[in-house]
Every structure is written in structure tokens, then in C-alpha cells.
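Students often ask what a holo structure prediction actually looks like on paper. The answer is less mysterious than it sounds. You provide the chain, you provide the ligand, and the output is a string of C-alpha cells encoding the 3D arrangement of the protein together with SN-glycerol-1-phosphate.
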Amino acid sequence: MGRVFDYLHRELEGGPLHLTLIDPDKSPGEKAAAIAEAAVKLGSHAILLGGSTGITPEVMGAAASAIRTRVPVPTIIFPEGPRSLTPAADAVFFMSLLNSRNLDLVIRAHARAAPMIRAMKLEPLSLGYLVIAPGMRVGEVGAVDAVDREDLASAEGFALAAEMLGMRFVYLEAGSGAPSPVPDPMIRAVRRSLSIPLIVGGGIRSAADARGVLDAGAQILVTGTVTETEGIGSNFRGILAEVVRDRGH
Ligand code: 1GP
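The corresponding C-alpha cells follow.
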């Protein structure tokens, strides 16, 4: 596998990981790099770059280049579409929005993006992306039939199908800014049936939220809003402290 895939798997042997999501439209260039640097110092394992509006290759490129000079960990694109791609990042989540009604987001945009990804020498990390209610903005723009928060069987079925299709990660997404994270019983059920790493994001805004999803079995936590709204404050530090605690150092 590729360098970033190997890095994530090596780090997962030591316990759960944290990824810091930065929206370069809201935090451009050096501002993104400053957040990244502070997050990595606290123990975050990689930077995710993405946003749902205002994303251009120039905005992504400027942020990825600035981040690269400041942090030793990989920068992974969390794409909205082919316009999110920049060769200045290390890898891209090559993600299929499993429960979208829009085939562009399931596979057709991927057919357009794949040759670009190869030409840019970006490492694709294939990922099944499943939106759980409330889904927030990604639920709307993604034309998603969001999985009900009590519907453990659907979540398990989608996640297992992603694994059987050969995807390398599954991401349970409650939506950026969701009032609460993906419910613990759902994380538990999905984790039980998967052998690939489980990523959980959306609505993790405190140490208590992080503790809940970690105890339920999330292997990779993603947070975005907490740093967009509070910077590197006590909530972000608390979230990282929970991840670091489970890594035993
Ligand atoms: C969004 O899962 C991520 O795609 C992060 O969500 O912004 O709520 O942290 P938050």
C-alpha cells in the first residue's frame, strides 16, 4: 500500500487516531498551517483538508503547501469533488457517499477524478462514507437518504458492503456541526462487524463526546467545527487528551 496508508495502519497499532479537519475557505494558507501545527503538537495524527463551499484548487493548494512546511504528518484531502484536488497534499480520501441518491457522489465523479489523482501522484485512500442522521449540510448537498440513528442494521449492512467491495476505511458521519455524534450503539455494532478501520466524525465537540465514541470502538476520530469556532481551546485539548490516553502515553 501507499505511504499514508502504511502510516495510518502503523499508528493504529498504538491505539486510536485523531484527524484535524481544516476548511481552507474559512482558514486559508498560513492560518490553516497554524491550526495544523498546534493540533499536531497536541497529538493529532494527520490533517484533513476540505470544506463544502468556496473550495478551489488554488485555495486547497495554498493551504496544503503552507501546512506541509509546518507539520511532519500527512495532509489528506477530504474532497467535495474534483475541484478539491491539489498535488500539494499527500493523499486523498477516495470516498464513495454510500447512501446518496446522486450517482455522481457514489461513483461518477470518481471516474472523472481518478486520472487526475494519478497524474498528481496523490495517494488514494478508498473509503466508504455513510451519512447518519441528522447529516447536516452534507446530508442536503449530498442528496442523502440518511441512516436513522436507531437503524443499526442498515449502518452495519452499508459498512460491511463497503468492506466487501474492497474499500479500506469506513467513515460514519453525523454531519459537520451535528448536535451530537453518531450514537454509541451504532458505532459498537459497526465496529463489531468490520475488520477495516472505522472513522467517526460529526458533532464531537468535547472530551466527553470523544470518550463516548472511543469507548464505543471508533478507531479514528475526526473533528472540524471545534477548532473552527474555538481555535485550539480547552475542548480541543480535552478531545486530544482522551485519544492520547487510549494510546497509553
Ligand atoms: C465533518 O465529520 C467531520 O465532515 C467533522 O465534524 O465539524 O462536527 O467536527 P465536526
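The mean pLDDT is 96.
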